[in-house]
Amino acid sequence: MKKAIILFLICSNVYSQISSKKIDRWVSKNENLKSSVVSIAIKQLNKNKKISGVRVNTSMTPASNIKILTVLGSISSGDTIPSIKYKISNDTLRISPTGYPFIAHPKYSDDDLESFIKSFTHIVYHKPNIDLTKYGPAWAWDDSKYYFQAERSEMPIYGNVIQIVKESDDSIKITPDIFKVNMNLEQEEKVSRDDQENNFFINPSLIKIGDTIYHPFVTSRKITMNLLEIFFKTSVSFNEDNLKNYKTWNSSIKDDIYSAILKDSDNLISESLAANISLRYNDTISVDKGLKIILNSSDDNKIQLYDGSGLSRYNLIKPSSLVSALEKIYHYYGFEGIKEIFPNNYIITETEDFAWGKTGTLKNNHNYSGYIITDKGRQYVFSIMINHFIEDIDIIKEAISDFLKYIKLSA
Description:
By secondary structure, the chain is α+β, with helices and mostly antiparallel strands. The protein has a domain at 19-62 and 317-410: DD-peptidase/beta-lactamase superfamily (Beta-lactamase), CATH 3.40.710. It contains 10 helices and 16 strands. The protein has helices at residues 2-16, 20-29, 67-76, 111-118, 221-232, 254-262, 267-282, 287-296, 319-341, 393-410, and strands spanning 37-44, 52-54, 82-89, 92-97, 122-126, 161-166, 172-175, 180-183, 191-193, 199-202, 212-216, 235-239, 247-250, 355-362, 365-373, 379-387. It is globular.
């Protein structure tokens, strides 16, 4: 009798674990996934278990799931994120950029850093070491007009976008207001810009009262310095020499940065973080050099990484590699920390929080990778990647929702 009870408990425990066969069966029965390439990897946390799933080692297009690697690369590169290099000379602040993106940002703020800089009457901007292109490989040329593809730069300011707001009196407020703006009631777009110049065109009749629109501007060091003068209400001069004998101001809002990347999927902030990682090792603001360091934080040498945000269609990664990266972030943050920097529950609204993860979307590709707590209290890390689908994305999202509910109940 005793042996029978033990055998029953063992069998029950084995049956309760999620297996590759169960996942394969779930995928096969899901009509919404018939024309897609589906790769799924899942692993129980804090257990010496193998990764289960289907096509766990198939290279897939990750889109914004690549931001998980960027955050891990930053975590693995130390406990601080340098905001500026600086040196104080009486009432003058000498600074050199680090790629840090939160100065005068329209959506996020770093009050401590801004208050520190505002306490000086003059700023000397020292030339940084830089190896940076404005756009990444395989970024879409016609997306340069959108907030999500603002230009990379050595010191992003105002998020490298202008903010356009239509106020209650029908007036148009533009921040920062330093560029040439033409009102054009004939154009079909709300806002447009010349390809290579900061010459903007706005049709106010297409903008509703209360609307806020962001449009990237063309960056340059001269424009950055000009905007520093405007925002900090102080004079700014330039010095060709690298800043020497400097101190480093480290960000006090590290988790806010990770949250902006993982919750809001902010591409410029993610690209800027990749460049900032490079600075910590090479004293050079460089996304390309930062990507090499990010790759070193991964267990997979087959990852194809071309940017820090996932905008590039050249990026390739296995779901098993994303699971490993997420597991490392978990060991750094713990589950309570995970809940702070990752968004919850995907698109599922009718239940209490049980999943936290990052989406990734490019046309015909949609992924979701993160963490889940099952009804039995087990904690898992997972990645579900769906590529090359031709169905409406809502159908794919429904399939992912079904998968999350299936794991919640079954594992």
